[in-house]
């Protein structure tokens, strides 16, 4: 096994382990990160004039956005926020198709900015989405609190 194969195997196991251990909030953050990485790979493909690599990377980004982020939205519970996010994801996918057809770096940069902003906002709601609920006194060493949602922001992604 050469070094490159070993690194790929480790990365695959690491990602699979991360997904297995992640809570729904972390899974959405991982989807954002995966889409951003795929777009960065597409940009590298364009710069290297490696059209097949660019196409694969853009297809991966579109799949993450459509089949991951957009498909996991619960539009019934999430209301207008979920519908607006869905429309934004559809726009990003359309821009990625244009980027693929025209090698349009500006379109890739635009989608990168949008995803980065959404990822940052998603990560910033994490500390505010959960608070400790006091529990009755228990014996020393026992668990004394449970996580309880204080907002329904996390319900936007109901199918994760």
Give structural notes.
By secondary structure, this protein is mainly α. The chain has one domain: Four Helix Bundle (Hemerythrin (Met), subunit A) (Up-down Bundle). 72% of the residues lie in helices and 6% in strands. It contains five helices and two strands, in the order H-H-H-H-H-E-E. It has helices at 3-21, 24-47, 51-70, 75-102, 105-129; strands at residues 130-134, 145-149. It has a two-stranded antiparallel ribbon. The two termini are 36 Å apart. Mean pLDDT is 80; it is low at 1-7, 130-135 and 141-152.
**Can you identify the CATH superfamily?**
Flagellar protein FliS
* CATH architecture level-2 label: Up-down Bundle
Strand order of the largest sheet: 1-2
Low-pLDDT windows of residues: 1-7, 130-135, 141-152
């Amino acid at each position: 096994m050469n070094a490159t194969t070993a690194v790929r195997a480790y990365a695959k196991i690491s990602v699979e382990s991360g997904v297995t251990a992640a809570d729904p909030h972390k899974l959405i953050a991982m989807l954002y990160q995966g889409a951003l990485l795929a777009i960065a790979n597409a940009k590298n493909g364009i710069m290297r004039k490696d059209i097949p690599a660019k196409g694969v990377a853009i297809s991966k980004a579109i799949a993450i956005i459509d089949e991951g982020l957009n498909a996991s939205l619960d539009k019934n519970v999430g209301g207008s926020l979920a519908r607006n996010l869905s429309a934004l994801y559809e726009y990003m996918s359309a821009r990625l198709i244009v980027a693929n057809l025209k090698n349009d770096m500006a379109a890739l940069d635009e989608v990168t900015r949008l995803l980065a902003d959404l990822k940052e906002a998603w990560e910033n709601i994490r500390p505010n989405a959960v608070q400790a609920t006091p529990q009755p006194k228990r014996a020393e060493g026992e668990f004394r609190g449970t996580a309880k949602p204080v907002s329904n922001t996390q319900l936007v992604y109901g199918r994760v």
